[in-house]
Every structure is written in C-alpha cells, then in structure tokens.
Amino acid sequence: MDGTVRKHIVISAVNIRKGGTLTVLRECLSYLSGQGGRFRVTAIVHDRALCDYPGIEYIEIPWSIKGWGRRLLCEYFTLGKISRSFPREVDLWFSLHDTTPRVQARRQAVYCHTSFPFMKATWQDVRMDLKIALFSKLTRYAYSTGVHRNNFLVVQQQWMRDSLSRLIGFPKEKIVVCPPHFPPFPAAGSPSDIQETVFLYPATADCHKNFETLCRASRILEEKVGKGRFRTVLTISGEENKYSRWLRDTFKDVASIDFHGFMAKDELSGWYGKASCLVFPSRIETWGLPISEFAPTGKPLLLADLPYARETASGASKAGFFPPTDEHALAEMMLEVLEGKADTLSPVPPVTPGAPYAGSWDELFNILIPPEK
User: Fold this and answer.
1) Which helix (H) or strand (E) holds 346?
2) Quick one: DSSP state of residue 6?
3) From CA 300, how far away is CA 198, in angstroms rounded?
4) The whole model's pTM is what?
5) Please, what is the Cα angle at 98 between 173 and 9, to 5 degrees?
6) I want to staple 48 with a disulfide (CB 3.0 to 4.6 A). Which of 58, 313, 317, 356 is the partner?
7) Secondary structure of residue 48 in the 3-state scheme
8) d(CA 156, CA 292)
9) What order do you get walking across the sheet with 257-259 strand by strand?
10) What string of pLDDT tens digits covers the 373 residues of the chain?
11) How far apart are CA 262 and CA 255, in angstroms?
C-alpha cells in the first residue's frame, strides 16, 4: 500500500436473510471483496455465515431480526452508535434494505427493494393475510422516514424510480436504476413430454400473487374446451397458508388446475421446458424473476398489464398483457395459446432507463462514491 487512507464503505443489511435481497447482498460484498483493497469495507449483518467474503470486516447483530421493534431500534439507534465508533467518518453508508438509518457519514444511499408501497390492498388481502395488507401501508412510512438524508436511492426498474419519486418527493435525478443480473436458467424439459397445453405460474403462496385470476380464467377455459385439453400448473400445494387453502377449496372443482407444490430449481427448469406458456398475474413485484427466466425460451408470456411486467419482459419475443383482475380477458388469451392462434401476442419493446443508470456494481459504486480526480 502507498499509505493513502482508503475510503471507508459501510454496508448495512441487518435484516436480510433470504431471497432476492440476500442475492443482492452477496453480489455487493463479492464485488467489494474483489476490489483489491481499494476500499475499507464493513458489513453489518445479523449472521456473517450468510455472506462471508475475504477482505470484508463484519459486525454481527443477531437480535436485529427478532421483530420489527428490534429492527427499528437497530436502524435508528444502534447503527448510529456504531457509525460514531469509527475513528474517522464513514465515506459511504449504503443500506441494502429500504430504510434510512440515523448514522454519521459523508454520503448515504439506500437500496429500495420493496414494491409494496405501490400495491392497493384489498379486503381480500386483509382477510387472507393482514400482515401483507399492513406492510403495504407501513413501508410507505419506512421509505419516507429520513429519506432526504440520502445522496442517492437505488432501484431495479424505471417504473419504481418514477413511482418512488412521486411517493416521497425524492428527486428522480438522485434515484439510480440498477437492474439485477441473472445467470442463464436453462429450460431442461420438452413440450413433447406431456400431451396437453401447459400454463405455468411459479410463485409463492402470497395473496398479492393473484392466483385467483388465473384459477378463474382456468375455470372459464375448461368450461369452453372441456377437461384434459390443458393444465394450469401452480407451484403451491394448497396447504401453505390461509390463502392457498382458500384457493384449493374454491377451485377444487376445476380438474385442469394442478396444485403441484414447491419446485426446486432443477424441477422448475424442467417445467420451463415442458410448459407451453408462462402466466404471471401478480399484482405487484420489484422485478418478477420467472418472467426473466422464461422469456429466453421464446414461448408465450401472458402477463399482468402492470409497469413491472412490461419492464421485466422488455425485449421478449412473444407476450400478451391482461388487466390483472380480468379473468375473462386472460381466458381468451389462454384459449388463443391453446388453439395456436395467439394473434394478440407480440414482441415487447426494449425499455432503456434514463440516467442515472448503472449496468454493474462497478458503475453503481462510481456513482455512489465517485473516484477522486
């Protein structure tokens, strides 16, 4: 080393445990770990074992995940205390989980994952999962609290930049669009493995995933064409929670619906190959990963007509969009796929986000903490 004081970056991610947020945390630390000592990096997590990379200093706070009260205590008090404990002021404090901690730092940024503030909760949501209905309201306040302490916010899509700017009054020119990058997900099966047309919807058993629109459309289609002509494969079993049990009981008379249950990665890859069409009716998503995974097959996509789906399907060769609560429109599109007459499907125009835009972690950190000239 030449004796130059390295810039100090703190990555705070105390509440990240699984899913897409954990992938983002790992990719972020993997990138910083490979910078050859360019930065001093401290990661504040609840469990180092989830994201252990060489060259990173770790502070573990295991109690932070034990309820929202402790999470908020950590965000607004404990992290501030930690920020004041460093011998010199932190150059960049980058929070990877939506909230703005009260810390001392030269620059701050927040990665905004959660799209729930933009979901309109329904009475069905309240009845099936009060937690999700409340979460859609509470996350608005989580985003807003202290947000103007930040130099930048980071989101995955253009629509979320526009929506977040309107929601909390944060300048668009300080919201960076940084799309996720996914390794190739091969479709291992073949449509010839099964006889009927297969409509596939891979999603978790959460009420905002809107399985009911697809199930109602499947009932309508079965009444039109009869049983045995198609199969709607769902990656829920009907046993996961109140919502999935309601779906199973409500649509148990529809023989074409297959409550298949959870699929591991290899099995899902096989079904991507076997499926004739992906259906994705979810009412809100930060991205919509199955759309990205299935689009390279070139087979039809039937997607909720919402901004996230149009942006995620950008560049897809064959897609149709339906109002997310209109089962009749979806049933008509499924019928066209079944009969090989999907005239309503067409290529999706590419979406090119405006600046500020980061196509990689390197580009993102050059925006968040610009190199000295």
Assistant:
1) none
2) P
3) 11
4) 0.86
5) 75
6) 58
7) helix
8) 13
9) 257-259, 230-234, 197-201, 277-280, 301-304, 319-322
10) 455 678 999 999 988 887 778 889 999 999 999 887 789 999 999 889 888 999 999 998 887 767 767 777 878 888 888 989 998 899 999 999 888 999 999 999 999 988 877 777 777 766 766 677 677 677 777 788 889 999 999 999 999 999 999 999 999 999 999 998 877 777 666 665 667 899 999 999 988 999 999 999 999 999 999 998 999 999 999 999 999 999 999 999 999 999 999 998 889 999 999 999 999 999 999 898 999 999 999 999 999 999 999 999 999 999 999 999 999 999 999 999 999 887 778 999 888 888 999 999 999 999 999 887 6
11) 19
Helix/strand/coil for 11: strand
Q: Which residues contact 322 (CB under 8 A, 6 or more apart)?
A: 281, 302, 303, 304, 305, 329, 330, 333
Residue pair 243/129 in contact by the 8 Å Cβ criterion: yes
Task: Quickly count helices (H) and strands (E) in the chain.
Answer: 13, 13
Domains, the chain, ordered by start: 7-179+355-368 (3.40.50.2000), 191-338 (3.40.50.2000)
β partners of residue 7: 39
347 Ramachandran zone, left/alpha/beta (phi>0; psi -120 to 50): beta
Structure tokens at 265: 């990665």
Please check whether residue 170 is in contact with residue 124, taking contact to mean a CB–CB distance below 8 angstroms. Answer: no
Q: Distances from the Cα of 12 to the Cαs of 73, 192, 260, in angstroms? A: 14, 48, 38
